[in-house]
Amino acid sequence: MNQSVAHAELIATFRRAEADAAHKFGLIKAVDKKGPKAIQAAVETAAKAAKRRDAFAKKLNVLGVRLKN
Questions:
Q1: Summary count for the chain: helices (H), strands (E)
Q2: Using CB atoms within 10 A of its CB, is residue 66 exposed (0-12), middle (13-18) or buried (19+)?
Q3: Residue 38 CA: distances (Å) to CA of 5, 17, 18, 31
């Protein structure tokens, strides 16, 4: 596979993970009236999504791809 294509695919995967993490952090606010168990589940899910996002960012950083925040 062409290296630039691999970078593009990894960047696209990172962007999806980034959007997913943002969405899941937004869900925390949506479940605030459903009780502590729902809030805890949303927080844990958001943390996992953020961890995936950060893992992709780290891979891109190793490849020398700099991301704007």
A1: 2, 0
A2: exposed
A3: 40, 22, 22, 6
Tell the residue number behind the tokens 């729902």, with chain if given.
Answer: 38
- The one-digit pLDDT tens for each residue of the chain (69 residues) are 566 777 888 999 999 999 999 999 999 988 988 999 999 999 999 999 999 999 999 998 888 887 775
Question: Which tokens is 45 given?
Answer: 């899910």
* Dihedral angle computed from the Cα positions of residues 10, 12, 17 and 22, in that order, rounded to the nearest 10 degrees: 140
The answer to whether 11 touches 60, Cβ cutoff 8 Å, is yes
pTM for the whole thing?
0.79
Size of the chain, expressed as the number of residues it contains: 69
